[in-house]
Prior knowledge:
Number of helices: 14
Strand order of the largest sheet: 1-2
Pfam families: Myb_DNA-binding
InterPro entries: Homeodomain-like_sf, Myb_dom, Myb_TF_plants, SANT/Myb
GO molecular function: transcription cis-regulatory region binding
Number of strands: 2
Order of helices and strands: HHHHHHHHHHHEEHHH
Distance between the termini: 42 Å
Shape: elongated
Strand content: under 5%
Subcellular location: Nucleus
Largest sheet: 2 strands, antiparallel
Keywords: DNA-binding, Nucleus, Repeat, Transcription, Transcription regulation
Amino acid sequence: MGRxxxxxxxxxxxxxxxxxxxKKLINFILTNGQCCWRAVPKLAGLLRCGKSCRxxxxxxxxxxxxxxxxxxxxxxxxxxxxxxxxxRWSKIASHLPGRTDNEIKNHWxxxxxxxxxxxxxxxxxxxxxxxxxxxxxxxxxxxxxxQITKPPSIxxxxxxxxxxxxxxxxxxxxxxxxxxxxxxxTPELETIDFCTDDVPLIxxxxxxxxxxxxxxxxxxxxxxxxxxxxSSSSSDHSSKNKFxxxxxxEWQFPDFEWPGTTFDYYNDDNNNMGLWDYDLSSSWxxxxxxxxxxxxxxxxxxxVDPDPLIxxxxxxxxxxxxxx
DNA sequence: AACTTGCCCAACCGCGCGCCT
DNA sequence: GAGGCGCGCGGTTGGGCAAGT
Length: 324
């Protein structure tokens, strides 16, 4: 249809985002839940295209993002899902809470591909590497690979039983709807071995909200009753929304409650977060429990000066980079 | 110390899809 | 049905950094 590239406009900035731009974008999202990406740069005072803003938010600024390398189990999950779905990174990402399609795609290209090749497995087809025959041409890049009986494993200790667990995990992921924060700490889920060495498990009462510790449990209660981001693994429960500051103090970021009934990471058809249908400021104030000075944990904090909000609500951004 | 190479990942680009008029 | 528009997705790029020479 011959569309003009959205960033063709003269004067639009490209390249790495600055702290100032991040701040503007976050401020805008905090105070304007209802908007469209195209309007964001204009309204937020950014010299970026809407696409760039969306990308920045979804891939980097979103508060529910997990950082760091994928755990071996996450990698295995990616491999299993790739065997089923092919290069549908967004679909794969929807099965890994806190991970973005970009992140998974990058990880696949830089790590997993090599690992599989080392193991003699074709990362495209998930079949053993062999020279292509005329009858058996190499799969097209976009072609969904044939489902093979047993997707390759990169887990050195994995046996059939382990693999079955992964399969069950995927099925569970796909069928699960919501798991409350309370559910996340059930012993059953704790037994799932899912990079627990990376992040220790926490109980709801341990959820940290910066500042006022007396209201922390109230925050946890609030979030556990309303938190709805489903998760299939113990590490997800424990590491998601948890951040370390420069002094290695842990900061916990409670889950969002997304619009509609409940937000479901694992529903393939519902994996966009419906961000713009939702007033973020109304959910973020769950975090700002420390605004409560008279025991009312549900009291809301007026959003007057967004800077302190950012400092509280986006600890990852605050501490993830020196510039914050 | 200077240079080269390779790796990683944030960001960009172009296309396809769905919705609307 | 055609065309315009916005958004999301997947592929690619390029800059920064670390390791190697």
